[in-house]
Amino acid sequence: MSTNKTDDYWNRSLSTGFSFDDEDDTSKGLFTNSTLTFEANSIESAFSSSPLDTDLYVLPIQTVISKKNLDAVLDDVLQSKPAYREVKETIKRMVLNQPYNLICYHSLMEKEELLDEATTTMDGDVILNVVLFLLNTLNSSNFHRIISKRKEAWHQYLSYLGSRLQTQQLSNTLLSVGSSSEIIEIFYMASVDIPSVEGVLSKLGHFIVEHFGEIVSEREKSVLLDYQNFLKWQKTENSKSQSVTEELTNLCNSTWKSKGADENKIIEFKKLMKISDLQYEWVLLNTLAAAEQWDKILSMFIKSNWLTKKNVIKSVIDVQILLLGLFRHNPPKNVIIELLNCIPDSDISFHLAKQMKCYRFAVDSYINQRDRLGLILYKNQLPAQSEEFFYAESALHSLNVKWKN
Amino acid sequence: MDSKVQKKLISLSEITKAQLSKILNSCSTPKDLIFDRNIIKPFERICGVRWLKEHRIDKIYKLSALPATISNNTQFYFIYTDYRSFQDVVNKIRSYLNVENPDHNKFHVVIIPRVLTSFEYTLEEFGLYEPVIKLIPFQWFPIYLDKSILSLEIPKLFREVYLKKDLSLLPIFAKSLWHLSFVIGKPKFTLVLGQNSNAVLSQTEMYFTELPKTDKHESDFGGLVIIDRNIDYPSCLLTPATYAALINEVYKVNCGFCEYKPHDDEAKYDNKYNPRVAKQPVSFMLDSERDSVYNDIKDRYFTDVTSRLSILTKNLKSENPTSREMALDEIKKYVATQLQAATSKKKFIATHLAAAETIINTLGHRFERQIDTERSILLNKNKGENYAFLEQILTTENDKYICLRLFCLLAITQKLTDNEIWNFLNRFYAEYGYNYGFLRSHLIKCNFLTPDKEISVTNLQNIVTKIPKFTTSNFYATANKLKQIPNNPEKINLKSPTCCSYVYGGSYIPIVTQIAAMLLNAIPLAEIKAKLESLGPLTIKNERESYPLQQKSLLIYVVGGLTYAEVAACNLLEALTGSKIVLLSDRIVTGNDIMEGLLQAPGR
User: Fold this and answer.
1) Where does the signal sequence lie (chain A) (predicted)?
2) Measured between CB atoms, does B456 come within 8 Å of chain A?
């Protein structure tokens, strides 16, 4: 019954284009326009019962409802929007910390305009505020499309997600625009607080499965694989060192300390992690020196030249760095002198000897160079009454040396 | 600029105190103050504990050492604008709260310099927004650190702005210029260089039009320069050679304080069995006003410092009369007046001798080679040898910042091939940990490296920040145009310098100093523009009515950190031109601070 009545009013209104008076053109237009979209047939099929002629029962609308009240009903049908404020004005209010309202910006166009205006302020707080408003009011594809076109907004949003460690949203956002260059950061963001080697290893495993394809740079990929290898090694060795060279240090240290330990493991680790010779030798030098294994140092860094049959220092470390590096460990003097003797360039060895206070070696160098004046000057720098002092003194008086000056 | 302006700048803290009083007096109940560890030093500079205690303060805590239960006092937390610290504070407060019936108006979180709206959202989500937790933004006035140095003392800005491109804190620069306008007026002539600095300029203009205006009609400064840190990376990458700068390199200066206490259990070796160099304990303020010895040596070339200190010691001895020569009342007078001065001077000399010795012990073994290498990098010579030195210190120094710094310098000057870059990175990861695997991405973001070509797919062109001309153009061409690199560095007089390049051993003059020199010498603006344009977006304001500068004084604002070497170079320029330069920045940094920012994991 009730449906019938409604139907009737519906039809009548449609056909006559009802209005109280002709002032309100828009409402009239609206009603009449609507009729165009409905075909008589479709109405009949859409509504279960056919329209009845109920005109007799219907009162004129003005007797049913006052104009004022009908206006209230109609206002409710087509509400006027909350006061719209110019985008520029709103953004300015945001910058100046005055009250503002974003809910009046509904259309996509307005939202984009809002974001554009926000980015011109270069105020990250304002930009992020608009971004979060868009995030709440747009679906993900629209949201990502809009912010990816505006780099200030994009960075601001990524920073926001990063500071909250929302790695899942971050990777969605990065992938939505195919930004693979930053995808690698997500793994580090997520793994930095994981305390255990196993935890990091499994996180890395997952990351490789999920995102390896998205990383463009082959070299970046191989860094991740190296990392994985290192973590696997650490897991089996039950170690917690921070880096490959630290691991090598610990490995060397424990090997030098326990007699008869297997040194092959060190070499195996060097090969596995492709440790550079410089890094490798530097660790060996320091760990051996700290363990006071001087003989081992000498045998490791001194080789005989097959051609000249003379001993030379063989190392990728610059010879001065090698000696000064060793000197910091206070080695016995004979170790230093043995190494000094293996430096073919006498200028270098002479200079080093002076730096490392190998007085006797330095005095001998002066004698070899037949530099009497140099030796006199140097003698005055030697500790008075020391053995070397007298040695220099006696050399100066010696008749065997043919001084050049 | 005269000493009156200097006194005004010293007194900026009075205004900050007034701001702080307003915050503390907003509630009349007894209060507890809780400070983030990093924020204590600036507060010592601004007001000190005694002043704080005058505001009905009951207890003062460190955030990290808060008790499990708290009194009924109103709580004021002081933290920097940092989401993590904010989270810590919120969690702490939640542990004190009765969730069913939370106290109202008990918890105040003062956030320096700015409360971000996203922080407010977090509180809303927890249902802790006012009146449970009240957030109070507080941007203090620039802090006067020393003669001609002002600092906002806001940490991590370089990382936020240049690496993460997070602009949340950028407006504080404009705000501080608005603040300063009330004290020193608005400098008319303005030169702005760099993308962020241009943003600061437009924000400043907005504040000047929309916010209350200064009643100072005349400015104390002839001009204002605002410049981005990334316009002149070498000034923080190069090894400085002046005393103050080296103090910051070796000890790390915090808010003008240099403090170091060795740990009791200092190991003999580092983690890779390199023998450790012991540092002498020190505690002093880098304050040329109070410490005449520091004033004498702060800008000296380092090798001259120890001999200078020994001269000062001798002078002190000769000033010290023996009591036998003095009458009794003379002795009395001496004890009352000069003895005090002599004693404090003696103390200062001892402190600086200890510090100087530590600098020698820490840097001595590589200082010369480092300076030589940097010199040949700037002269664009011996690329192979320079790279070999880089490889060497990467291994032998066991210091990730030092080697990364040199790498960055090479990357922006002589440029590195793909193989050289990857060789370095792989060794770096092996030496210091694969957990730094994000480093390359960070280096690209800060324009030390150029991005991969392959990645410019889909709509990425819109996202990847356009590489500023700085990295693509030839570093040497612009540096030579600005005459930053002396042709014969070895001829530069380092002991009694007349060229500002002495701060880097004669090899480089900071850009801020060169810009200041051009402006103070009234070089035609067209010429200046031609020299600076290739470095980044350049804006000059009010050129007609205010250039040449009406006063020989400049306020220079560096966005992203300032170095003591730049300060020293500007101090020399001041002396050479009879002008006054005040430098302002978010913080005084070294290259190591920049590197620390690069090496911090994403999301930190």
Assistant:
1) none
2) no
Structure tokens at A379: 């003698």
Q: Where are the domains of chain A?
A: 2-77, 87-237, 244-357
**What are the residue ranges in chain B where pLDDT is below 70?**
1-2, 320-325, 453-473
Query: Cα-flanking dihedrals φ and ψ of residue B141, to 5°?
Result: -70, 155
Angle between helices A140-148 and A108-121 (to 10 degrees): 40
Residue A105 distance to chain B (closest CA, Å): 19
**What is the structure's pLDDT at B470?**
46
The H or E element spanning position A226 is helix A218-237
B164 to A162: CB separation less than 8 angstroms, yes or no: yes
Residue A171 pLDDT: 86
Q: For residues A209 and A217, what is the distance between their CA atoms, to the nearest angstrom? A: 16
B441, B454, B462: residue with CB nearest A151: B462
In sequence order, the β-bridge partners of residue B32 are: B59, B75
In order of A252, A253, A254, the CA distances from A258 in angstroms are 10, 9, 6
pLDDT at A20 over 60: no
For tokens 């087509």, the residue is A78
Read off the pLDDT of each residue in A43-72 and give the average, rounded to a whole number.
Answer: 74
- Mutate one of B392, B434, B464 to test the A interface: name it (highest A CB count within 10 A): B434
Tell me the average pLDDT across A244-264.
Answer: 89
> Mean pLDDT across the stretch A84-107?
91
Q: How far B347 CA lies from chain A's nearest CA (Å)?
A: 31
- Are the beta carbons of A123 and B203 separated by less than 8 Å? yes
Mean pLDDT, rounded, for A361-372: 85
Domain B3-141 has CATH 3.20.20.80: no
Question: Cis (ω within 30 of 0) for the bond into B113?
Answer: yes
Question: Residue A238: exposed, middle, or buried by beta-carbon count in 10 A (0-12, 13-18, 19+)?
Answer: exposed
Confidence of residue A1 (pLDDT cuts 50, 70, 90): very low
User: Does residue B486 have a cis bond before it (omega within 30 degrees)?
Assistant: no
Query: Does the pLDDT value for residue A10 go beyond 50?
Result: no
Give residues 71 to 100 of A whose Cβ lies within 8 Å of B. 92, 95-96
> What are the DSSP calls for B307-363, one per residue?
HHHHHHHHHHHHHS--GGGS-HHHHHHHHHTHHHHHHHHHHHHHHHHHHHHHHHHHH
pLDDT at B317: 76
Domain ranges of chain B: 3-141, 142-230+534-556+573-604
Prior bond to B510 cis, omega within 30? Answer: no
Is residue B572 within 8 A of residue B497, CB to CB? The reply is yes
Q: Cβ–Cβ of A223/B121 closer than 8 Å?
A: no
pLDDT in tens, A185-206: 889 988 988 999 999 999 999 9
Do B142-230+534-556+573-604 and B3-141 fall under one CATH topology? yes
- The pLDDT of residue B141: 96
Q: For residues A137-148, give the mean pLDDT.
A: 92
Q: Which residues of A touch B84 (CB under 8 A)?
A: 163
Categorize the per-residue pLDDT at A178 as very low, low, confident or very high, splitting at 50, 70 and 90: low
Mean pLDDT of all residues belonging to chain A: 84
Q: Residue B444: which of A217, A161, A193, A152 has the closest Cα? A: A217
* Fold annotation for B142-230+534-556+573-604: Rossmann fold (3.40.50)
**Residue A42 reports pLDDT greater than 70:** no
User: In Å, what is the CA distance from B376 to each residue of B383, B390, B413, B487, B591?
Assistant: 8, 13, 11, 11, 19
Closest Cβ–Cβ partner in A152, A273, A328 for B167: A152
Torsions phi, psi for A326 (to 5 deg): -70, -40
Instruction: Please state, in angstroms and rounded to a whole number, the distance separating the CA atoms of residues B539 and A79.
Output: 49
A63 burial (CB, 10 Å; 0-12 / 13-18 / 19+) is exposed
Nearest Cβ partner for A124 among B168, B211, B459: B168
Q: Do B603 and A230 touch (CB under 8 A)?
A: no
